[in-house]
Amino acid sequence: MIVRIMGEGQVRLADGHLAELDKLDDELLAEVEKGDGPGFRRTLKALLDKVHDLGEPLPDDALEPSQLILPAPDATLEEVRDLLSDEGLIPG
Predict the structure, then answer these.
(1) pLDDT tens, position by position, 24-35
(2) Left, alpha or beta for 70 (phi > 0: left; psi -120 to 50: alpha)?
């Protein structure tokens, strides 16, 4: 699976890691819904760090179709709220 982090680039991630990411995504969704700014910031960082830890960065000149698009590390709570579906950032 190819994951795009807005403003950073793309990362190749094994599908088997989605369950780990989904837990953080659920936390992020709850924090956005509550308007918990500090919790949101902490969980977004943890989610992006996990993608970096588990994934393999693609070269900057690679342009693969992304199956998942995640917000930039400096995205605001409001920007992420606009990106969220009922299932969070990571679909079901």
Answers:
(1) 999 999 999 999
(2) beta
Pair 45, 26: CB distance under 8 Å? no
Task: In whole angstroms, give the CA distance from residue 16 to residue 7.
Answer: 25
CA quadruple 59, 92, 31, 19: dihedral positive or negative? negative
Which tokens is 25 given? 């995504």
Query: Treating both helix axes as pointing N-terminal to C-terminal, what angle do 18-34 and 37-54 enclose, rounded to 10 degrees?
Result: 170
Cα 13 from Cα 22, distance rounded (Å): 13
pTM, two decimals, is 0.89
List the alpha helices (DSSP H) in 1-87: 18-34, 37-54, 77-83
Q: Is 83 exposed, middle or buried (0-12, 13-18, 19+ CB in 10 A)?
A: middle
61: its two tokens: 């000149």
